[in-house]
Amino acid sequence: MHPADPPHPGRLTVSRSHGDPAVVALDGELDSETVLLMARAIAQSLAQDPVPEVVVLDLAGVTALAAAGLRVLLHARDHVARCRSSLRITTPRHPEARRTLQSSRPYATFDVYADRRAALDAGDRHSFLELVHRLWATGG
Which parts of 2-124 fold into alpha helices (H)? Predict the structure, then answer.
């Protein structure tokens, strides 16, 4: 992972990895002053050739999640879907940020994982289709 943007002291820092899945990790406050950093990192991840099948948005280090942050998460989910990718979100470790995310109305529409390892280990479309095929073939 390498920094996508220079850190803002006490604010949000973003790092991202190339490849598939692409990982965008956030540390700090996700609010109206910092959402563009996250949006830019996701857009850069989707600009890869080929486009990653999965983008993991690691929110573990997010300490505050404002309404603007929730809105940009919805936009990120939709943008990733338009690029024919899937967005996976990890749960913030900070209790207040985690509570804000989990109590939000759009929470049920996100593909949420406990941590980055769980999000990375979730497989991809091919593994899902293989599982469905095996279940179909065995009648289970």
Answer: 35-46, 67-82, 95-102, 116-120
User: Among residues 41, 36, 34, which one has the least CA distance to residue 56?
Assistant: 41
Tens-digit pLDDT profile for residues 101-116: 999 998 999 999 999 9
Domain that holds residue 88: 2-138
Separation in Å, CA 27 to CA 20, 85, 100: 21, 23, 16
Instruction: Indicate left, alpha or beta for 10 from its phi (over 0: left) and psi (-120 to 50: alpha).
Output: left
Q: pTM to 2 decimals?
A: 0.80
Number of domains in the chain: 1
CATH number of the domain at 77, please.
3.30.750.24
Calculate the CA 22 to chain-centre distance.
9
